[in-house]
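Record pair follows.
FIRST:
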Amino acid sequence: MKKLLPWLLAGLVLRLLLIPISLHPDFRAVNLAGYLISQKGQTFSFYDYLSRQPRTDRWVQLYGDNLFIYPPLAYITHAVFNKALFWAYPQTAFFTLLNDIGQLRQDLGFPLLMYLLKLPYLLADGICLLILSRLLPAKNKLIGQLVWLFNPITIYSAYLMGQFDIFIALFLLLTLYFSPKNPILSAVSLGLSAAFKPFVLVLAPLLPGNSVKNLLISGLTYFATLLPYLFSPAFRQYALLASQSDKLFFAKIMISGSQYLPLFLVGLILIYFWRYFKPATYSLVGWLSLPLFLFFSLTHYHPQWFTWFAPILTYLFATDNKTRLPILALVTSFLVVVFSFDPSLNFQLINSDLLLKIPDLYTSIARGIFAGTALYLTFHLQAASHGQSKS
């Protein structure tokens, strides 16, 4: 602990410096939902709130009816903190965030508001560090803690973008933590991670034990969080089915004028059969890595989604020296992709006018490097797993 303490303080200071200087427009949705749930009593009806307002309503004109597109837990989590801390929010700044975000930086309450609204991410980040410390062998603990403290993935998504994907990383870590001790809690944790964004349900059949049982437990956990909202028209229309699910099928091979092979699905089915017939091929970390390698190699993902992979990459980096250079290649490729998006996802986050948009050619090269590196790690993790089983 003495060795970690100065680094822990440095990591905290870094986060505290970034929190009050960054802002992304998407930050409004979760906080508007949190306000409606905690302060307006819209716990089970917030999805329909905007669609029920007059068309002249300020928020309707700003956001439309389809603002809330994520599962309920993504918004309820923020509502819990809104309920507890609303009294401390600089009120003018909070409503400027919701009503006129372009003027927010001029409000003197802006820094305090950012600290309070991003506090949930800081707490989740700290819990992730604690769980990682429990998961890692003693000889690898310090390097894993340092990697987590300074990894650019979560720092970017949680503190610059203000995105809640850190909660998915937290529940995936709990999935790993519970797996050897309590398989049911492990599957429940995976279901709770899906209750923020449902894609991670594809990992459920890869958990140890019966694949169907694991998928059933995770799926029922996820479904239980949706159940109170199934009667909401807006929820069913805008949030029940993931609006980004079509991205899974962008990478394809055409086999006729209108039919194609979706490469992600081909790879995922291969992984499932591989896991079913040869479960000893990989450790749990290895099995969970494969769909994520596939996903980030073949989809046009949003940059905050890469946070889902951060715990696994941290664990691999800390425990296997031969993964370190490849993981650095993956993270570098990710950073190139970040700078291929519009400026609102990079320099504009800190109110900078600097423009840097990497051309599609170089972004495609970075994606190729990522895919090739992911393929190498797929083979390496298999060999490493065999080596461990023999020893």
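SECOND:
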Amino acid sequence: MAEKERLILAYSGGLDTSVLVHWLSAEKGFDVITATADVGQPCNFHEIKEKALLCGATNAEVIDARLEFVNEYVIPALWANALYEGEYPLATALARPLIAKIQVELAHKHKAKFLAHGCTAKGNDQVRFEVAIRALDPSLKVLAPMREWKMTRAQEIEYAKEKGIPVPVTMESPYSVDENLWGRSCECGVLEDPWHEPPADTFEWTALPESGPDEAEYIEIGFERGMPVTLDGKKSDIVSLIETLNRRAGKHGVGRIDLVEDRVVGIKSREIYEAPAAIVLITAHRDLERLTLPYDCLNTKWLLEKEVSRIAYDGLWFSPLNEAIEAFNSVIQENVNGVVRVKLYKGNVKVVGRKSPNSLYDRSLATYEGKDAFEHDASSGFIKLWGLPLEIWARRNKKEKQ
């Protein structure tokens, strides 16, 4: 009897991947090894491992990737203040290249030639997984069973019931949810109608903003080289800091995002996101950069921030361009040190104070009071020279029209 081909399946324990473990092993004859990455999602990984084995996997690997996720993916995105289409902090998009990297590493460990994921033909994640894998090891073959199988979610649920596969999805609550430290996404079901207000059960991390505390909460976030390192003056490891901010900001309804976005595959989709910590940290970090970086650096950085968001969303994380932008941002962050005070209230986060040993703000130059060090007499000559090109242009055009 021929030995079965080994296959590494990216496994979340949800509907799609649980159904796929059974389908790939029982109906396609693969020796399925599941790969589950702990990137901060709130779940029981022992139960996920047991479920994978119950569904037909011969081995179930669970990798604690939280620190790698934050240090190698979240922090570079924070340095870039990355918000896709100005709103989405890219939580799912940032985790996918890391999960693909873990799959490749497990393929080498288990001598597997095949990798698989549970993404559909309409989604962004199929692009992110497959492009990342090709960038890391082009010799591996990637299978996308959901593109081949073409089952609807209703059919998947029925298949799971028929085969005795335990899944946390019903026809009454058919949401597709993805979670990690940086945020939570929710789609499908009634959310597919962009006119339909998201029902209360869509959200788990954030309170209804208008039902949040009637008293504002102030938080002080300390940064070193652009990395958040303290909360209210107390040192914290980065994972705990993000977890704490998710709870504290979520309590005030901060970080709810309802977005009709442009997918990589050319369609628009309606997505619901919750990202309390991400929204607070990006808001604070961006403000501290304004205090500590000169205008030419900020102006260049703003142009590149949109590129980082596109790169992450489009699955090009392992590209030379992303590597180069990250190197630029790393250098720029040398002076992004200080403390930012934010105010959380009824779904809003606002910066209300900032200070830094690297501050470029000079009160003696900015003040309108008596101790004004600004050279007022220099303004007249500056304005004349600054506007000289336009003056010459205007004179020339006037002369030509006469």
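COMMENT: The mean pLDDT is 93.
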